[in-house]
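Most newcomers find our protein records easier to grasp once they have seen one. The structure tokens are whole numbers drawn from a learned vocabulary of backbone shapes. The record below serves as our worked example for the rest of this section.
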Amino acid sequence: MPLSTEETKSPVSATTHRPIAIYYEHPDWFRPLFQELDRRRMPYVRLDAVSHRFDAGDGRPPYSLVFNRMSPSAYLRGHGNAIFYTLHYLAYLKRHGVRVINGYDAYVTETSKALQLSLLHHLGLPYPRARVINHAAQAVAAAQGLRFPVVVKPNIGGSGAGVRRFEAPVELEQAARAGALDLGIDHTALVQEYIPADAQRIVRVEVLGGRYLYAIRIYTPGDSFNLCPADVCQTVAGAELVRAACPVDAPKNNLRVEGYEPVPEIVDQVECIMQAAHIDVGGVEYLIDARDGRLYYYDINALSNFVADAPRVVGFDPFARLVDYLEREAE
């Protein structure tokens, strides 16, 4: 059981004096993680990112390890106050030498799609062409030279929130003039070429400790931009999946999934991306362009949710391996 749900002072392996801390925001996504920690009777505390405090002048925090599970989509649940606050808290932990899984540098990348594209460009990896804007009036000019359709995508986002597709420049111009473009909570957005996915599917590759863990193919319903793997409803064969990380009344989204094994070159590239982003646990998404067969990486996730009913989809329980990893890192 968790020792506490509050950050408290207390007198490097995980003990009741120096427990693991799980810093999180979503009320449902991490139930499987907490259940596995409880099953093993590991000392840990839950730190609620939505209502939290720290003393900037205090000494080393009392944790053997902090696991950052903050979501950039928190503002969709009325928790936007935690997004930028988390940057300050992670900087504080970094300054005091606390081992943080998905720490400050990872979270900076997680909360900037613009930085993600810069990272991919630096690594020489393919991504959909894009321009970055901080005002809707710049959208039309930013789209010049890009291939339509394009999407306008908030820089800080998640679950496909705020993403809009435009088939032609005139549509984009009309939306910009009408004030109908969502630039997100940092008033920054991408104007990016829309890539139609071959067979309406994308691939998500998960890493643990920076190393390949598994991959899945997600089959998308139409033009949906919300492809959270924890919300997947069915296998490609139509079997219903148990969505343990979802609220019981969560609507079904018609996503279908199957386990998949990428070629070694892609695995190497994904691991390289995660190393450059300082992401310990997370996922990278890519797709194949239906028009010409080219591969594009388009999303880097530090807050990555494991696929629903993983043993049926990928053959093992990733939460068990995640807790194994946390135990090793806390030693």
